[in-house]
């Protein structure tokens, strides 16, 4: 910690008497996962009440971000009406979810179908995200096609495509 205190002090020109270090991996966006939040505060002139206020503020931030979990809405469908033996496109649209950490797999009898394409992750004003994955396929009678969605730390859920034939 003294080496870190020296580096921060050298970079800023300040004499940091104390450093506060926090690790909020689940409170940060998925792209920042396992990133530590480093906050250097010149505590020379801060009272214990002020230090406590900093900590409580960060804890409130952590709770606020972590509480925004919204499960995804999943729709599995095909571009054209399902017809056995006829080339088609299997589509899985996942929407209205938060946080953005999500995995989508298109499956045939429990095995991932290769060469699937996925849109870029997009979001609305309320920070709810949406994503679409699709793959060319030719439906076969007796074969089960599903969209497997894993959202954050939750268990994967399979959504079945129904041919409606």
CATH class call of the largest domain: Mainly Beta
> Which topology of the largest domain does CATH recognise?
Immunoglobulin-like
CATH architecture grouping of the largest domain: Sandwich
- What is the SS-derived class? alpha+beta
Number of helices: 2
Radius of gyration: 24 Å
Distance between the termini: 67 Å
Q: In terms of per-residue confidence, which ranges show pLDDT below 50 for 5 or more consecutive residues?
A: 1-38
Classified in CATH, the superfamily of the largest domain is Immunoglobulins
Strand content is: 35-45%
The overall pLDDT, averaged over residues, is 77
Quick one: how many beta strands?
11
List the secondary-structure elements in sequence, H or E. HEEHEEEEEEEEE
**Largest sheet, if any?**
5 strands, antiparallel
How would you describe the oligomerization state of the chains in this entry?
single chain
InterPro entries: Ig-like_dom (IPR007110), Ig-like_dom_sf (IPR036179), Ig-like_fold (IPR013783), Ig/MHC_CS (IPR003006), Ig_C1-set (IPR003597), MHC/Immunoglobulin (IPR050160)
Subcellular location: Secreted
GO cellular component, one term: MHC class I protein complex
Keywords: Immunity, Immunoglobulin domain, MHC I, Secreted
């Amino acid at each position: 910690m003294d080496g870190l205190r020296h580096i921060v002090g050298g970079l800023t020109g300040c004499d940091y008497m104390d450093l506060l270090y926090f690790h909020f991996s689940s409170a940060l966006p998925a792209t920042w996962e396992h990133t530590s939040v480093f906050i250097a505060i010149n505590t020379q002139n801060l009272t214990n009440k002020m230090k406590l206020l900093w900590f409580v503020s960060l804890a409130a931030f952590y709770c606020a971000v972590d509480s925004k979990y919204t499960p995804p809405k999943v729709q599995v469908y095909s571009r054209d009406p399902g017809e056995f033996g006829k080339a088609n496109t299997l589509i899985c649209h996942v929407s209205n979810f938060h946080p953005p950490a999500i995995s989508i797999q298109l499956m045939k009898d429990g095995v991932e179908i290769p060469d699937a394409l996925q849109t870029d992750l997009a979001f609305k004003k309320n920070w709810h995200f949406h994503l679409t994955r699709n793959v060319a396929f030719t439906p076969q009678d007796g074969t089960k096609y599903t969209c497997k969605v894993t959202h954050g730390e939750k268990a994967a859920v399979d959504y079945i495509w129904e041919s409606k034939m």
